[in-house]
Design goal:
homodimer, globular, alpha+beta, Alpha-Beta Plaits, PsdUridine_synth_TruA_a/b_dom (chains A, B), 30% strand, tRNA pseudouridine synthase A (chains A, B)
């Protein structure tokens, strides 16, 4: 495609970031460079010597991390694709990293072409919170029941109306989503919930994990999961887990083999 | 002991800290509360309702972390020893944590009674630095030779004059120190040097690790280790490794069984 007399290219960029020091992924008037998108666009403009607008696969909230966020953007620059990540990393702050850039079809869109995503939520049990995990894992000062939490995960798998597992504040047409896989992983006192699906409602993973932890410590009964799925009543579930335990691991751009 | 009409107690406190946001352990005029010691003393004064001066097992530089730093201090407060850590953690920022408090003999001194220390230095190899390790592990953009580095470790073990492995700026009487154990540990691309000894000169671990990495990438020959030990010439070794990879793991307060 020709853009202002120059060839237009579409670049798919995979990035990682530590979300601690940002107001989330999405650009915001007034605090633009304190968002991932704003900071990225600023550095891209310097590398490509033209204004760049990126489209992300989706937003992440302030404090949420990403190991495999994907954005796409158009450019007329002729910079070789294999040099983009390196050039960008020279400009980016150390808490945002470009992993790889690929030239893709002009109609590729990081959000609309995503088939699904994988998130991992990390938390740990103990007496004293660790200064070393405070930014990346949620401290839970209770003993948790692994079996109960694992059983609750099983109930969430599949296609459901997840309205009870969402915060208001986004405009979505339907609350039906499919969870392909949800696993509780144990590594000593450090546990993770790994969850992949075709799409996630606003705060969905954090509400799921908050409910799982409440079930694990005995504050909620496992029956609340089925009841919440049936009644779509958000009040049946506890508080959402805090953002810093959450990490966007991967965005899928090819169909997922899934059997219910 | 009676102090101003009150019983004096000596408390041994084990703490952890993420050193990222501090100018190091030692209190400094003008930036007192931006040091670990200053911040700790401020919070101790609030908990004990009296001024408290702590003595650390030793300093750590700005950016260096600790999983097992030990301090001791006197107090006339009658607060039960088992409540000290919890009370303190309510006051401390989240990057400093009190692990445990013990009441010890009045002549115990965190520095003078230490028999030795254990440090771990973390680094990782790769193409792109990770935003998640940037505060806790040193990024090395080279492939390193494990066998060569391990062989170099063996040469460092034992009692030597480590003057070549120290920065100027501290007043020590002798440069002789004993390294009890030094191990290179491999976990995928994440490697660690674990090193225990009866005492460490200023920057000694960081200079050792800097030299090991230079040997691993082929910039220094392994012979420089023996030469540096013999000649005490600091210039034979490369740059010291940066502070953020370093962590004080443990301070030993009982004799170490060591055979050369």
């Amino acid at each position: 495609m020709v853009l202002g007399g120059k060839m237009k290219r579409n670049i798919k960029l995979t990035i990682q970031y530590d979300g601690t020091n940002y107001y989330g992924f999405q650009r915001q008037a007034g605090r633009n460079i304190d968002t991932i998108q704003g900071k990225l666009e600023l550095c891209l403009a310097k590398v490509f010597k033209e204004p760049i607008k990126v489209r992300g696969s989706g937003r992440t909230d302030g404090g949420v991390h990403a190991e495999g966020q994907v954005v796409s953007f158009f450019t007329t620059s002729v910079i070789p694709v294999e040099k983009i990540a390196l050039a960008l990393n020279h400009r980016l702050p150390r808490d945002i990293i470009a992993l790889k850039a690929e030239e893709v079809d002009l109609n590729f869109h990081a959000q609309y072409h995503a088939f699904g995503k994988k998130y991992v939520y990390s938390f740990y049990q103990g007496v004293t919170p660790s200064p070393f995990y405070r930014l990346y894992s949620y401290f839970v000062p209770y003993q948790l029941d692994f079996e109960k939490m694992e059983a609750a995960c099983t109930l969430l798998k599949g296609t459901h109306n997840f309205k009870a597992f969402s915060s208001s504040g986004s405009n979505v047409k339907t609350f039906e989503r499919t969870i392909y896989d949800i696993d509780l992983i144990k590594n000593g006192n450090h546990w993770q919930v790994s969850i992949s699906g075709n799409g996630f409602l606003y705060n969905m993973v954090r509400i799921i994990v908050g409910a799982l932890i409440d079930i694990g410590r005995g504050r909620l009964d496992i029956s609340c999961i089925e009841e919440a799925l049936e009644t779509t009543n958000r009040n049946l579930l506890g508080k959402k887990a805090p953002p810093h335990g959450l990490c966007l691991k991967e965005v899928y751009y090819s169909p997922i083999n899934y059997e219910e």
